[in-house]
Amino acid sequence: MTNKVINIVTATHLREHEIRLVFDDGTSQTVNFKPFLQRALHPDVRAFLEPGKFADFHIAHGELVWGDYDLCFPIVDLYANQLEKQGLQEQHA
Predict the structure, then answer these.
(1) Which residues, at least 6 apart from 64, have a Cβ–Cβ distance to it below 8 Å?
(2) Residue 25 — very low, low, confident or very high, per pLDDT cuts 50/70/90?
(3) What is the model's pTM?
(4) Distances in Å between the alpha carbon of 2 and those of 5, 63, 90?
């Protein structure tokens, strides 16, 4: 089994907290970050609910990044469009 590295090649801000991501294998996802940001407990993460701050992202080394890695997500989670691990949350509920 080979572990192919997946990179983001384009990221387009669609509306509010949604970004359309295109990966180097041709796969694309529209990711809604708002639910994750609203559930975040840390104020530095919740600050990205502010539209201007959220819209100030870029791609660095194939990753979606805000600031100097002030906020970023594992590519595997973006690729699967699954920012939160539901199974883990349900186990602790």
Answers:
(1) 8, 11, 19, 21, 57, 72, 73, 78
(2) very high
(3) 0.85
(4) 9, 20, 31
